């Protein structure tokens, strides 16, 4: 019988060894690491981590580098790309704590991680941090999320004063600003006749104001809304009393001064002029007198009063005295006199009339 070849002997030795390990194996042996053929029976096999081909890094979108503002009830869907090879481990935290899985869901792929909130609430506001780890390397990114809603109404409003066509109002800020800074207040007015509300002031920053240009005779009520980035508050307090705009009573005071005395005795500023008349043709005599009080005018012919004689017609208007001689005859010639008399004195003027 010849010697077996080297390959056949090796195969037989391996078969005998495998069978021996199976037969003599125990539970304790199963937990111990198997010896490498290149090492001794007591040397464990070293488990080397895969080499890092790409360092972890987060690419934060520009829009998320500032505070991400959403309204209550809106959807939050943030997709954050990152890099790293082999695939790194991505972890999210909210204000340093683990996410609430009942409200926030996270999906992480090979190259990005998505944070999703179906209906945002104010409690979801805060600092969210994404951490990407690969071996001993780590990259982090922080995102500020602010969930806002409409502010509450101002706590109260008071009618401080009413003067002229204006009213002074005062109110207190709202307790709840809606998780956002107030942009101001909107003040509205309504008169009792129409009952319609009109805006008097918008985005007013103080808590005290004056509403002007109110209509005389009307009564007004006022209300004020708070406003933030989401809009006006749903309700507004209304003044308890009404502002009655009444017509102001004006008292005129006349200046006291010495009354000037315009009284004067009669004085003729234009005398009578001599004239020659043609028989049968009417002729008129004129003169001007000045006096205060108004004087009494008396006409004389040759020093005889001719008042009431139908042949003569005397008129006086604005200090102008006139005498009309109707169809004179040569007998109507003579000296005519105009006399002016008032309580302060008298004056007279004469003229000669010839009839040819």
Automatic annotation (TrEMBL):
Statement: the UniProt record of this protein carries the keyword Cytoplasm? yes
Major location (coarse) = cytoplasm
Q: Which SMART domains match?
A: FN3, IG, IGc2
Q: Residue limits of the Fibronectin type-III domain?
A: 153-248
> What organism, scientifically named, is this protein from?
Galemys pyrenaicus (Iberian desman)
Query: Which Gene3D superfamilies does this chain map to?
Result: Immunoglobulins
Q: Where is it localised?
A: Cytoplasm, Myofibril, Sarcomere
All residue ranges annotated as the Ig-like domain in the record? 50-144, 266-356
Which InterPro entries does the protein's record reference? FN3_dom, FN3_sf, Ig-like_dom, Ig-like_dom_sf, Ig-like_fold, Ig_I-set, Ig_sub, Ig_sub2
Q: By what name is this protein known? A: Myosin-binding protein H-like
Give the family, as the similarity comment puts it. Answer: Belongs to the immunoglobulin superfamily. MyBP family.
Where does this protein have compositionally biased stretches of type Basic and acidic residues? Answer: 13-32
The domain of life is: Eukaryota
Tell me the organism's taxonomic lineage: Eukaryota, Metazoa, Chordata, Craniata, Vertebrata
Membrane-spanning regions, if any? Answer: none
GO CC annotation: what is one? Answer: myofilament
Residue segments, region Disordered: 1-54
